[in-house]
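Protocol step 4 of 5: obtain the predicted structure for the target chain.
Materials: sequence only (see below). No template structures provided, no constraints applied. The aim of this step is simply to have a reference model before the mutagenesis design in step 5. Sequence pasted as it appears in the construct record:
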Amino acid sequence: MTEAVIIDAVRSPMGRGKAGGALSEVHSVDLLASVVRGLVERTGIDPGIVEDVMIGCVGQAGEQSATPGRQAWLSAGYPVHVPSVTIERKCGSGQQAVEFAVQGVLAGMYDVVVAGGVESMSRVPMGSARMGADPHGPGVRHRFPDLVPQGVSAELVADKWGLSRLALDEYSARSHERAAAAAASGGFDDEIVPVTTPDGTVVSVDESIRPGTTVEKLGGLRAVFGTDENRAALPHIDWKVTAGNASQITDGAGAVLVTSATRAAELGLRPRARIVASAVVGDDPTLMLTGPIPATAKVLAKAGLGIGDMDAVEINEAFASVPLAWAAEFPTDEARINPRGGAIALGHPLGASGVRLLTTMINHLEQTGGRYGLQTMCEAGGMANATIIEVLR
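Step 4 output (structure tokens):
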């Protein structure tokens, strides 16, 4: 039986997704090309044997509109016969790209695939692809008249699970603390590919981490979605989602080399991990962010494992209420949940986040002697991906 393995996984540093951010002067294509080139050079493979380049990207407008994986491959100087495809499953796009690559190998369609993701949110702002259009349409709005923006969904989740403002801010301060500790100890060094900006500056560390973040500082921020209109529509909500307990808008990219185990052996490549199981689900589109809960149950059942078998769990911190609600349903040692911080500290470059989580999780498991890791990602529209990996030694 064919087995799919992960040979290597890398990511760019995370840059603040606004003008003046560390990566804001780097074209989206060249940002992705940097990590693709880093992946190829680290593994030593002949780029001509890659059969496809699968790239997750949400904002498919402007610089990211022309199949960014194809353009990045060409920018890196690699053979023109290698094609690419863009994958969009909202925040899970990069994770889905890896899973599609794995599925292609398992099906016998591929032996060597590069999967990844990119999002330059400073250069292609969130929502650019929609440009004010209603993405739902009258049929959906008739069926679900209570649809709300994602930030309001985060408030609904916090309310449903009884999460206090203090709990959200405590979680968020801990995310920064853990990310800062990992960065200071060199824990991220093995996963980051430096990116050179047009002026020659080499960016090699995450710009988004704020060491010294405290609950007190976070407590001084206003609730972003507590507008008069929202308060009138949802008078029972105690508004508590702020810029400090939500993910950061970020520039970033990542890439993963997926091969069959047989081809890896033929090429003399040592696999770092394998995908044990993966799952996708849909959930309530109004709550929107709860998908990781049923996705986790589904993927654990497929893998024949329990939550106690997971040495690390990476849950995308779109908002602090997401991992906290998940933890209420899957009681887990909190030290295992986002042990190196998450998107609140490291940022959330949409289409690239799934690859960032995977890369960080593999490195953490290797460096701490762990075996199994669970990664799950909430997605707009009430969807979620979940993946279980096993580190190979």
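Step 4 remarks: Residues 272 and 296 are 23 Å apart (CA to CA). The two ends are 21 Å apart (CA to CA).
Proceed to step 5.
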